Amino acid sequence: xxxxxxxxxxxxxxxxxxxxxxxxxxxxxxxxxxxxxxxxxxxxxxxxxxxxxxxxxxxxxxxxxxxxxxxxxxxxxxxxxxxxxxxxxxxxxxxxxxxxxxxxxxxxxxxxxxxxxxxxxxxxxxxxxxxxxxxxxxxxxxxxxxxxxxxxxxxxxxxxxxxxxxxxxxxxxxxxxxxxxxxxxxxxxxxxxxxxxxxxxxxxxxxxxxxxxxxxxxxxxxxxxxxxxxxxxxxxxxxxxxxxxxxxxxxxxxxxxxxxxxxxxxxxxxxxxxxxxxxxxxxxxxxxxxxxxxxxxxxxxxxxxxxxxxxxxxxxxxxxxxxxxxxxxxxxxxxxxxxxxxxxxxxxxxxxxxxxxxxxxxxxxxxxxxxxxxxxxxxxxxxxxxxxxxxxxxxxxxxxxxxxxxxxxxxxxxxxxxxxxxxxxxxxxxxxx
Length: 433
Fold this sequence. Notes:
This protein is an alpha/beta fold. It folds into two domains: 2-197, NAD(P)-binding Rossmann-like Domain (Rossmann fold), CATH 3.40.50.720; 199-433, Rossmann fold (3-Layer(aba) Sandwich). Helix content is 44%, strand content 14%. The strands form two sheets. An eight-stranded mixed β-sheet has the order 3-2-1-4-5-6-7-8, with helices on both faces. It has a six-stranded parallel β-sheet with strand order 11-10-9-12-13-14. Helix 1 (10-21) links the parallel strand 1 and strand 2 (25-29). Helix 11 (264-277) runs antiparallel to helix 12. The chain is globular and about 75 Å long. The N and C termini lie far apart (59 Å).
């Protein structure tokens, strides 16, 4: 079995590496020559725990290769996975499928009879049918199948999510596509109830509906946190109690500064736009999008409101990535909060264990630091934006000695209150009066 993986972004690279670790021959294709050159040298362009070791192991074993040449990747391939980005279009939020369709057209001349073209990209309903139509129009003689196999990988835990998935979803329109995908996932030894075989349209909807629901949980608990602050409640106790209800579950009930990343913001916009397109508006998700963007601004305003005059005050920001164990800053709360602080005259010192190099490309007028304590030096307020483990374990006495002020704003509720107060600092939390 040979797999061609089209696109070496987050999804394509993780999926390609993991499939090779299952014993399959995988060739990853990308038009970015510099990225492919780095991957050939074993240099991984993203931070994902464990990915570099698995890549190196399978590359040395001869199961994993990288190329910029479509023919080299696709020749003799049994399955061609499309893992091309589908970003939001400016304005309405619809998914931009132009890169995906361009990639489909570029590979079609090299496809061979019997191949299954599998969409790994997150796509709106009817996309797989359009892919089928494009290939059929360009190669009417070709015998092929199209399938949908949406990904459910969490950044920072992507390898575990691939190897031990909650479920594998495949949308198919014929037995050939189903048989091949069952064979590809056979090494995971999944029980039948965790292998979902459905239509192309259902598979497309499952991905978006899943992310929309999780985004709604995040937004819900943030709204609960707001209420807790007004009435003297504590969102940590409230979320723990409601999460113990097995109908609700504990996951995604952590209040914070708003959701970010490559999936939830983009996918909720596309899901809402699809509802409008097909005259079935998704009102809950439309509200989730609005509330989430407002929350990021509100977090910045809470920092500004600490000071009578914020001009020339210094904020130490801990965490640039949208979540820990990744260097991904796409739509992270930091990208809204930091510029708003600077626009209002504040100075910003920042530290993140992995995301600073990426952060430097998208954030201006920030003083970048080599540690959390260095960031705290001379700061009037310290703000935790990402729940990195090292921040929870920070020596608060060192922080207190370094700071000019005494305010700690923990937007992730990870700092032990007694350690903060014991160091003579004042703790502000999300969801507590």
